[in-house]
């Protein structure tokens, strides 16, 4: 199994504990340190291979049964996503599958303007209808100059199919993600695709 952008390694370590051989690519040294510590705490260092680098650039020998990318697809341009999908195809065995979280445009358009507070941190969601991007802004309460904003391109399944038109990947099936009730601050894990904030795209080679 190959995980892209593994962060501090919660999924990778959990998969390794289940007996999977997991290779991860991570760009942030601090995240790698946390991942190594977590792997050591759970005794799975032998099942976890960590590659420090940019998954747009690193070279990996061999192919994988599963390639997964959680909560990050959509950073950059359409061309960036196509380049990444081509790399995923190269890393994937002919009978393998890719699991990719993808944000939905309808959900993030609906919740534009929502604000919340998490401890000392304030957060606001907005939506760019022209670029079809979710806009996520964080700042320290009382310090608006500390704002940090990230943009994530949202894709409907139809958009995703267009993105993969020149690829040998195809959309095999979809699993709807959850939605947030901002009035009750309750996360609803089971919902329909038209209400979901994201979906899991399961891709196979054509």
TrEMBL record:
Annotated Pfam families: Methyltransf_25
Domain Methyltransferase: 2-96
Keyword flag Transferase: yes
GO molecular function, one term: methyltransferase activity
GO biological process: methylation
The UniProt record lists the keyword Methyltransferase: yes
Key words, A-Z: Methyltransferase, Transferase
CDD domains, per database record: AdoMet_MTases
Protein name in UniProt: Methyltransferase
């Amino acid at each position: 199994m190959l995980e892209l952008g593994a962060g501090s390694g919660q999924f990778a370590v959990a998969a390794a504990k289940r007996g999977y051989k997991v290779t991860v690519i991570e760009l942030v040294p601090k995240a790698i340190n946390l991942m190594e510590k977590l792997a050591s705490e759970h005794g799975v260092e032998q099942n976890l291979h960590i590659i420090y680098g940019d998954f747009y650039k690193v070279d990996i020998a061999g192919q994988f049964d599963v390639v997964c990318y959680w909560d990050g697809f959509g950073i950059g341009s359409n061309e960036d996503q196509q380049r990444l999908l081509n790399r995923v195809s190269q890393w994937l065995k002919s009978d393998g599958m890719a699991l990719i979280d993808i944000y939905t445009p309808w959900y993030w358009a609906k919740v534009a303007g929502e604000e919340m507070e998490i401890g000392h941190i304030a957060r606001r969601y907005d939506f760019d209808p022209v670029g079809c991007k979710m806009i996520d802004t964080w700042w320290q309460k009382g310090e608006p100059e500390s704002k940090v904003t990230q943009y994530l391109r949202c894709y409907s399944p139809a958009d995703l199919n267009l993105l993969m038109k020149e690829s040998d990947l195809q959309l095999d099936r979809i699993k709807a993600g959850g939605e947030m009730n901002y009035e009750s601050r309750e996360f609803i894990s089971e919902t329909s695709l038209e209400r979901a904030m994201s979906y899991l795209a399961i891709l196979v080679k054509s």
